[in-house]
Design goal:
The protein is of the alpha+beta class. It has a single domain, classed as Nucleoside Triphosphate Pyrophosphohydrolase. About 25% of the residues lie in helices and about 35% in strands. The strands form two sheets. Strands 1, 2, 3, 4, 5, 6, 7 and 8 form an eight-stranded mixed sheet that branches. A hairpin with a 2-residue loop joins strand 1 and strand 2.
């Protein structure tokens, strides 16, 4: 890995991404998330949440980004990401953040009749790094992870996920006993790939 990855470098990397979209999926069958970063003394940090345990949530207890399903009142997935972040963390991204840009839409691989069928990520820079976040009942934990930790591939490991009884080895990061994997990791990887093109990884 190169030197410290700060917000300026991460912003440049994300700005260079040409996101893939899936027009075949109606907006009401999508979800949206906010990948929020802040600058810290040792480099940029990315905001993750650990979702509360809930039997109706397909990502119950998982590490992820704040967000949720598109509602009829949302004008678009971006509005969804902003609304959900406000509801889950009491963080108003319109007031305290700058939209850096969208990332590629990611298929969820849920059952064909289930929703959401895809997730649209948006990257925001937090203008107020010391902003106080307050989790609602949907969030068990708020965790800031250094981007430099994620960019260091020696921190990458493997976990076993069982699908219909079949063990599948999947890539992951373990950070303080928490596991970042699956759809969330695919979002992170697009940012890391963009950083590599900027010479930041």
């Amino acid at each position: 890995m190169a030197g410290i990855i700060d917000g300026k470098l991460l912003r440049a990397a994300v700005a260079g991404i040409v996101p893939r979209v899936d027009p075949s999926i109606p907006a009401m069958e999508k979800a949206a998330v906010a990948a929020v970063y802040r600058d810290a003394p040792d480099g940029a940090e990315l905001l993750f949440i650990r979702r509360a345990e809930h039997p109706r949530d397909p990502w119950s207890g998982h590490m992820g980004f704040p967000g949720g399903r598109v509602d009829a009142a949302d004008r678009d997935p971006l509005a969804t990401a902003i609304r959900e972040t406000r509801e889950e963390l009491n963080l108003d991204l319109e007031a305290a953040g700058d939209l850096v840009g969208p990332l590629s839409e990611v298929r969820t691989h849920l059952a064909p009749t289930a929703a959401p069928r895809s997730v649209v990520p948006f990257v925001f820079e937090l203008r107020e790094p010391g902003a106080v976040l307050r989790a609602n009942s949907e969030v068990q934990e708020i965790v800031w992870v250094p981007v430099g930790f994620l960019a260091d591939r020696t921190n990458r490991g493997v976990m076993t996920f069982r699908r219909r009884g079949i063990p599948l080895p999947l890539p992951c990061y373990r950070f303080g006993g928490r596991v970042i994997w699956g759809l969330t990791l695919r979002v992170v990887d697009e940012m890391l790939d963009a950083l590599a093109l900027q010479g930041g990884v």
